[in-house]
């Protein structure tokens, strides 16, 4: 157990479903107080109830992470509920699959706003709270798609996720003066509601491409976030960690067949 997490105040954007829900649950299980930011009240309230039933502390604030005023309201609500903000898990994002020939400028802008602009807004809004606390932790949920790999239909998604990594390097330097670290997790294929919607054929194909032989779980990502948020990781900043079961390692499918 990372004892430094207990009692910390954590914002998890996109915390009502998928990886964000996993992050919220794992942090709460370690004694953190979790503010779940999401647009959908029903899923978020259900997540809060699940965390409470397991003995954790969580609250929900309706937030559109693409909007500056809404994100500022999220930080204020967290400070009102928990007294401070110690950790930001900037996880919110979307991944509609649209090939370039069908992609509209509006499709591109929607993904950039939800995935990349939201990262900037969320981090910027938390800086004053980190300064008051004397330190802070930022963990971005990026992806292997974009920074390392590509997949048809996700040019906009890949660009947004690569953009997060460009953002974090400068942000980590600027926020270091406030004793705040900024790091990113690059998930591979993680089993979530969203991934399940792509169909069993896709799921089976992705699992077959992973040396460890399975899709990741939301807890696999959450545990990495937990470490990066801890005091034990206080000298790590501006870095990225791939959590993908070895998915990006094989040179070809022949390499997997030779295992």
Could you please describe the fold and organization of this structure?
With 259 residues, the protein is an alpha/beta fold. The protein has one domain: 3-Layer(aba) Sandwich (Rossmann fold), CATH 3.40.50. Helices cover 46% and strands 15% of the residues. The chain contains 9 helices and 7 strands. Strands 3-2-1-4-5-6-7 form a 7-stranded parallel β-sheet, sandwiched between helices. Helix 1 links the parallel strand 1 and strand 2. It starts with 8 loop residues before the first strand and ends with a helix.
Keywords for this entry:
single chain, 259 residues, alpha/beta, Rossmann fold, seven-stranded parallel β-sheet, 15% strand, globular
Please give the domain count.
Answer: 1
What is the CATH fold-level name? Rossmann fold
What summary fits the major beta sheet?
7 strands, parallel
What's the average pLDDT? 95
CATH architecture: 3-Layer(aba) Sandwich
Low-confidence stretches: none
Overall structural class, as computed from helix and strand content, comes to alpha/beta
Instruction: List the secondary-structure elements in sequence, H or E.
Output: EHEHEHEHEHEHHHEH
Q: What coarse outline follows from CA principal-axis ratios?
A: globular
Number of helices: 9
Tell me how many strands there are. Answer: 7
Work out the strand percent.
15-25%
CATH class: Alpha Beta
Order of the strands making up the biggest sheet: 3-2-1-4-5-6-7
């Amino acid at each position: 157990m990372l004892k430094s997490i207990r009692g910390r105040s954590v914002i998890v954007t996109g915390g009502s479903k998928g990886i964000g829900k996993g992050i919220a649950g794992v942090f709460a299980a370690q004694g953190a107080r979790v503010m779940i930011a999401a647009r959908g009240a029903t899923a978020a309230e259900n997540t809060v109830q699940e965390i409470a039933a397991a003995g954790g502390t969580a609250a929900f604030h309706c937030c559109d992470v693409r909007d500056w005023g809404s994100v500022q309201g999220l930080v204020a609500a967290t400070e009102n509920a928990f007294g401070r903000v110690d950790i930001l898990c900037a996880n919110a994002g979307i991944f509609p699959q649209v090939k370039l020939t069908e992609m509209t400028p509006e499709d591109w802008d929607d993904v950039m706003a939800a995935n990349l602009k939201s990262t900037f807004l969320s981090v910027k809004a938390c800086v004053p709270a980190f300064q008051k606390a004397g330190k802070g932790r930022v963990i971005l949920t990026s992806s292997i798609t974009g920074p390392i790999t590509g997949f048809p239909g996700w040019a906009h998604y890949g660009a947004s996720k690569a953009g997060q990594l460009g953002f974090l390097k400068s942000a980590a330097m600027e926020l270091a003066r406030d004793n705040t670290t900024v790091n990113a997790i690059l998930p591979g294929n993680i089993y979530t509601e969203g991934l399940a919607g792509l169909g069993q054929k896709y799921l089976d194909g992705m699992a077959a491409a992973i040396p460890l032989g399975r899709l990741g779980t939301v807890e696999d990502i959450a545990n990495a976030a937990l470490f990066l948020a801890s005091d034990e990781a206080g000298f790590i900043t501006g870095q990225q960690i791939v959590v993908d079961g070895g998915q990006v390692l094989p040179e070809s499918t022949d390499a997997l067949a030779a295992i």
